[in-house]
Design a protein that fits this description.
Helix content is about 40%, strand content about 15%. It is α/β, with parallel strands linked by helices. Helix 2 runs antiparallel to helix 3, helix 2 runs parallel beside helix 4 and helix 3 packs antiparallel against helix 4.
C-alpha cells in the first residue's frame, strides 16, 4: 500500500484524517483513549474493521495513562471501553475488538506496565490479523469476478476502512493482481461522499481504472449494461445474512436484483454477529443533520429544514448473491452457511 490508514508507534496511534481527503493527506497523533474515541465519533477513522483496531489501541493507551496517573489500570480500562463503545453503535467490529481486549485483560496481573505490554501485543495481533484476513478474503472474493467486469462500489470498503488492503476493494485489488481486467464505477455515496473522496482516491493511487458517478446514476448504467456486478463492505451482518452497510446500499441491492446483476458483500468473520437474528435487530446510527445540509462546510439547504440522516440501512439476505470472508465465499441459504462458519 502507498499509504497507512493507521499506525502504532509504540506510544501513540497515528491516524490518517479521512475527513480532509482527498485534498490533504494529514496524519493525526493520539496518545489517550479519549482522543481515539473522538476520532472514531468524528470519522477521522471510519470503516468497521478500522474502528475496531483503533479502539483496541485506544484501550492500550488508557492502561498506559493509568500508570502515569497512579490510577488502577482496570478502572481506566473499564472507563475507556465504555467511552469507545459509545461512539458508533452499528459497526459490530468495534464491540468485537473491545470484547477481545476485555478477554485478554481478564487474565492480566495488577501491574499496569505488564498489563500494558500484554494488551499492546493483543492490539497488534488484532491489527495484523485484520490485514491478513483482508488478503485472504480478497483471494476468495476475486474468484467471483471475471476479467472484463465492470464493478459498482458503494461507500469506501478499502484499505481506508480497515487496517490495510480492504474488504470490497480488497477483492478488486486481488482480482487485478491476478491479471484480470476490472473497471470500477465508484458512486459518490452521499452525504459523507466516501465514494468520491476515499474510494476514488484509493483506486487512483493503485492505478485501478475507475469512473466516479453520482448515486442516482447507477440505475441508468445498469440498464445500459455498463455495470456487471456490485460489491460492498458491511458494518454488521445478522446470522440470517441480512447486511447493515452505508445508507444507500439497500437501494443498490434492489437495483441489482431488478437488472439481474450479482450483488456481493465482502466482510471478515468478525463483522458477522451471530447474536443478531435478523437485520431488524441491528441498531442504526443517526448522525447530525449538518452532514446533509452542508457540503465541504458550505450550506446547500435552507436554514431550519428538517433532516433525517441515518448512517446505515439493512439489505435483506434475499438480495445478496454471496458473502466473501477470509474463510471462503458464503452462498445462500446464509443461515446455514453462517452457522457452519461459526462451528
Amino acid at each position: 500500500m502507498t499509504f497507512r490508514t493507521l499506525e502504532w508507534t509504540g506510544d501513540a496511534l497515528l491516524l490518517l484524517d479521512q475527513r480532509v481527503l482527498p485534498g490533504k493527506e494529514s496524519v493525526l497523533r493520539f496518545t489517550d483513549a479519549a482522543g481515539v474515541a473522538d476520532a472514531i465519533r468524528t470519522m477521522v477513522v471510519r470503516g468497521a474493521p478500522a474502528i475496531g483496531v483503533a479502539a483496541a489501541f485506544g484501550l492500550v493507551l488508557a492502561v498506559r495513562s493509568a500508570d502515569g496517573e497512579n490510577r488502577p489500570w482496570r478502572e481506566a480500562f473499564r472507563d475507556a471501553a465504555e467511552r469507545l463503545g459509545s461512539t458508533r453503535p452499528t459497526a459490530v467490529n468495534l464491540f468485537w475488538a473491545i470484547e477481545r481486549m476485555r478477554g485478554a485483560a481478564s487474565t492480566l496481573p495488577d501491574d499496569p506496565r505488564e498489563a500494558g505490554r500484554r494488551l499492546e501485543r493483543e492490539a497488534v495481533a488484532i491489527c495484523e490479523e485484520d490485514v491478513e484476513a483482508n488478503r485472504r478474503m480478497g483471494a476468495h472474493g476475486a474468484k467471483l469476478l471475471s476479467s472484463g467486469t465492470s464493478v459498482l462500489t458503494h461507500c469506501n470498503a478499502g484499505a481506508l476502512a480497515t487496517a490495510g488492503y480492504g474488504t470490497a476493494l480488497g477483492v478488486i485489488r486481488a482480482a487485478v493482481a491476478a491479471g484480470k481486467r476490472i473497471h470500477v464505477y465508484a458512486d459518490e455515496t452521499r452525504p459523507f461522499l466516501q465514494g468520491a473522496r476515499l474510494t476514488a482516491w484509493e483506486l487512483m493511487k493503485d492505478k485501478i481504472p475507475c469512473t466516479l458517478i453520482t448515486d442516482n446514476m447507477a440505475a441508468k448504467l445498469m440498464k445500459d449494461g455498463k455495470i456487471h456486478a456490485a460489491i460492498v463492505g458491511a458494518d454488521r451482518i445478522a446470522r440470517n445474512g441480512d447486511v447493515a452497510n452505508k445508507i444507500g446500499t439497500y437501494g443498490v441491492a434492489v437495483l441489482c436484483r431488478v437488472h439481474k446483476i450479482p450483488f456481493y458483500v465482502a466482510a471478515p468473520r468478525s463483522t458477522i454477529d451471530p447474536a443478531i437474528r435478523t437485520g431488524k435487530e441491528i441498531p442504526i446510527e443517526e448522525r447530525d443533520g449538518s452532514e446533509v445540509t452542508h457540503l465541504a462546510g458550505s450550506r446547500v439547504a435552507p436554514m431550519g429544514i428538517a433532516v433525517y440522516n441515518p448512517a446505515f440501512d439493512v439489505t435483506p439476505a434475499r438480495y445478496v448473491s454471496a458473502i466473501a470472508t477470509e474463510k471462503g465465499v458464503l452462498r445462500p441459504p446464509f443461515s446455514r452457511a453462517i452457522r457452519e462458519l461459526f462451528r
